[in-house]
TrEMBL record:
PROSITE patterns: PROTEIN_KINASE_ATP, PROTEIN_KINASE_DOM, PROTEIN_KINASE_ST. InterPro entries: Kinase-like_dom_sf, Prot_kinase_dom, Protein_kinase_ATP_BS, Ser/Thr_kinase_AS. ATP binds at K35. SUPFAM superfamilies: Protein kinase-like (PK-like). This is non-specific serine/threonine protein kinase.
Amino acid sequence: MIGGRYRLTARLGHGGMGTVWRAHDEVVDRDVAVKEPRLPDHLSARERETMYARMRREARTAARIDHPSVVTIHDVVVENEQPWIVMELVQGRSLADVLNDGTIGVREAARIGLAVAGALEAAHATGVLHRDVKPDNVLLGRYDRVVLTDFGIAAVQGEQGLTETGAFVGSPEFVAPERVLGQRPGPESDLWSLGVVLYAAVEGVSPFRRSNSPATLQAVLSAEPQRPARALSDSGAFGMLLTRLLSREPGLRPDAAEIRQTLADVARPPQQALRPQAGAPGGSAVGRVLRGFGGKLRTSRPWQFGTGGAVVAAAAATTLFFALTGDRAPDGWTTRNEEARVSARLAVPEDYERSADDGAVTYTDPGGVVSMKLTRSSKDIEENSLKEANSWKTFYEDGAKEDYSTTMVEVRSRVTEAKQQGQEAAEVSTTFRPKPDIGEPEEAKKFRHELVYVNSKGVRWLLTVNMPAEGKSRKDGETVYEEAKKSLKINDL
């Protein structure tokens, strides 16, 4: 019996700083988890007190974070001068246990990652860096709950550190390179760790793990991870997110908002992939604000998609097919047959990166400045093209709410009539500013061109091109839109 109320019933696991027990709270009649400090006998009194202080701070740190994916702390009990942490009992397995049985799918990885990213975002908002994001510390509970636990080595802004100067803490293969170098970490360091976790979950191998810790740390600093082939194959957006999360320069990693949006899109079940949120017309995947327009337009083909023989053969076959059918793309462009995804074909710049999800294909310039997306909604649209376009206009002018939160401000949108292969269509042109997260600087204005077409069966196609609102990139984006619109051929008008 601990603290006169917590009866230990079974050992659940152990780690470097303690053993976790299942216990029963005799006062309120519920099962809980209790973390017992377990320290080596050779530690000095000063070292033992440091470890106990770390456990007490772990409890305080987790308790100050209000998020459903952060473990709930119930109590701290001092027994024989040692602090025992009493927390909620998460019924389930750790992600590490699950991965011991094999990899998980991209959609499930995105669902788990979305919850962990939310927990980290909440922690960072309170000045807490977790510093030990790894599969062992991600618990998968009942009712699809995901919980981030073990804040034992967390760094808390404004509090004195408990780690000796120069000492290294964390699990080497999941530690960001700036931490290995002894540089001051930030939220981006936890996001790197999340990227490694998701990479390992889907690809089946940790990108930097080596035979010993020094070799692993050296790999973190200098080794290029293998291309996340399975992730890119199943979801280009997810694969590209992993690649960017593992950027060695912290400033090049995506921010929490972009991670949340991308993972939410990937995690959404197929039948919901194009369903609106909070009144959005059509599909939420295209209703969200696309971020990451920084950088410059480049003309080199991205490395991510390789130059293997199969790829070359497929490209040659595609070129031959469209040559025989009389479709010719402009110089520097290629015609893409997207029959399987969206029942259409269109021309895109040759060096644009392709990603695909259910009912949607996206092409992005190598610098991430201009993006083009074509979606096909299989749900029944009761309105015609013009009314559907006006629904989008209203949605944007209302702030493009997602999960009841405004994502667009300073919106100016207009609708014009158009034609698609001789049929009635409509266009939506929108200038807006993405609403920044709290504490984040204001972003530059963006511009979005969209072609909306709804056929007689209520199936809707939406061609969207996103670009900066000003400068040369605006002109480039306008050209991309006009050429893509002109080349678009829908197969089941």
